[in-house]
Design a protein that fits this description.
Elements lengths: L15 E6 L3 H17 L7 E6 L5 H10 L5 E9 L5 H20 L3 E8 L2 H7 E3 L2 E2 H22 L1
Parallel strand pairs: 1-2, 1-3, 3-4
Antiparallel strand pairs: 5-6
Amino acid sequence: MYNTIEGNLDASGLKFAIVVARFNSFITERLLDGAMDGIVRHGGKAEDVDVVRVPGSWELPLTVAEVAKTKKYDAILCLGAVIRGDTPHFDYVAGEAAKGVGQVAMQTGVPIAFGVLTTNTVEQAVDRAGAKHGNKGFDAATTAIEMANVLRRLRSNS
């Protein structure tokens, strides 16, 4: 027989930071609304959430690193929208944002949910920010809640 350790979707008592990009705010504000809904719907309190706004997704890794260093949060959510254009700029921003945020999580041990949309069209972004494909901000919130709980369990067992 084996033991299973997994997180649950109980946000009560957890503290979150949400770092949200202002670029493509017509999408990122919808992601933020979805993330807040996800936290509150799972027992969290709005007053236990700090929202940090940055210019764009490129600025997410540095900001998340500073937020993680405070050790005030059980989990951090990153929200942004990088929509492909006519130049390779999309590839650089999306790739470096993902890589940088992943590095921060590994270096700090703080769970970070990556809720940055990387889409080919505005329509795809809209669909993932509350339309046809749900709200990826809400999904990032459930990931953050579960990871905060699983890491809390793992760390209490050691």
